[in-house]
What does this fold into?
Amino acid sequence: MATLQKIRNNAGLLVSIIIGLALLSFILGDLFSSGNPMMQSSQTEVAEIAGQAVSIQLYQGRIDENIENYKRNTGQSSVDQATMDQLQEQTWEQLVREYLMQGTFEDLGIGVSGQELFDMVQGNQIAPEVMQIPIFQNQQTGQFDRNLVIQFLKNMELDPSGQAQSSWTAFEKALAQEKINQKYNTLIEKALFATSIEAKNEATNKALSADFDYITLRYNAVADSLVQFNESDLQAYYKKNIDNYKQEELREINYLTFPVIASEEDDNETRLYTENAKEEFATIENYEQYISLNSDLPFDAGYYAENELPEAIASLFNSKPGTLIGPYKENNAYKLSKVVDFKQIPDSVKARHILIRPGAGVNAITKADSILNAIKKGSSFAALAQEFSQDGSAANGGDLGWFPAGAMVKPFNDACFFGKKGDLVTVQTQFGSHVIEIMDQSKKTQKVQIATLARIIEPSSKTYQATYAKASKFGASNRSLTAFLDAAKAEGLNVRVASVKPNDKQVANLENSRSLIRWAYEAGKGEVSEILEYNDVFVVAALKNVQEEGTASFDNVRMDVEREVRKNKKAEYLMAKMNEAAKEANTLQAVAEKLETEVREANNASFGAYSIPGIGFEPQLQAYVVTLPTDKVSEAIKGNTGVYVVQVKNQRTATDNLNVTAEQMQLTRSYRSRVVFQLYEAIKEAAKIEDNRAKFY
It folds into this structure.
């Protein structure tokens, strides 16, 4: 830059201009080149919130963080698509609120101290979110137990993986943020109140009511041919009511589904497979292993009473071990069922346990064995449960009460139902090591265990290929919307319609059909898609209409405008007709006779009510009848469904019995219940959020 300055000084203005233009050319050339960092950044912006760019890297990083927190909190190793979609949307809302509100929180000095957070977790002001966590609830009473929180926090530090600490830190961060939101909301709410004058006016208006007679002529009784309007009338109405025609971004698609459904040949092949397996199934002894290798449904080790068996195999209860039935068809599968065993088993068991969870530097199996030995030597089961058990039943000495078969996980269930009263055992489950004592059992009854080999009836490759060929032929032969619709009609196919927003996750019942929505936003109007596949359903779609965000064009809402203009013209026609009939009439009955209609009655029409008894939602009429002079025939009143002429018989007020204080409290509550939502929505609208997520997901 120093060199350039010397040149400018020595060569004068002309050289400076030339060099300036050269620099500008160089800068602009670099700016518009594809490799320019500024251009690259715009291509990776997932949003712009209040003028601040949000990169896809930041957004995806937050999503990944929320996914990991979810997996740690739920103990799941993976996340399904529905949950993934929810977490993405949750992350988006968090980011928007953060970008819009964080500066405001800081300016107002709103925060959460360490002592506040302590009170929210284990102190005197426990947060509802903490109280709702299952591991902090007593399993017997279902109530929150502060001691379980303290026990968890102590053991958390012993977790060598650090996962417990990470999950808890993320949870506390979310708690603190929610508390900050609550403080801000409270600040806003407390700033609003209704004045005594507002309350008095509201109470006075609510007390107004009237009884009246009326006649009405409905708009739908007027023939369309009796009213005239032109293009300028339509344009004028459209411009005057332009705000009523705001629209969001949408794409309207027509689409055809070609579901892959098992054919009759597939059904027969499935039945034949099952028949061929019958001889081998009759001789096997290791049922669990055989079924895990050969069946489409897992082995069921449960024992069942006669009335618990499906009708198709109920007769097996009165047979012998080894008896086989099938193949029979049930729930879209062909099955073979064979009696494995009969046992005398109780219907319910009463037990208590001590749970030692793995991790946190403790060998759960060794510790459970030592506790079992202590109990056998005379130590109190209840006392040891209260001291060591990491389960909500610890406070009750580990007592689980009575429970039916199948209520517990299999190893725990089997120990309780196949053991005998008084047994003391240890078992391992996914929760940890359990020391169990069977305290009591109900009367034992005979139950049967049945092994079932199942083959689900599914479409074959041949069926897949035939369905794909049909969809492919249709899509390839009809590459425009018109051809698409004509061909579908000719072939008797059901054309479905869907309107989708940019960030919708699926179309109707087509699971995981996000790619169809992305296609709709990339395609041009009238284009037909290639074949798309969603869970055994082939789809061919056509883009019917493109609706951009903003104000709908006149052409797009012309029918709506015509309907409203026609309604207004009918109102003018009827009002003129009714006012003419009322000119020299002293009574409503006289007006009714001229108009060849009848007088109706409405009582207790309250100004504060949503509708008028016997008439419906007519706010203009409600306002008129409580303010018109009594016993006088009114001029025509334009309503929602027709035109009215009324004669008020009686009006009521209650100015002497107004409870202004109660009304003031109710109005204040009403203001405060709406203000937080309305304020945040106004902030979002003013921020002009540009949401580009649909380009990336």
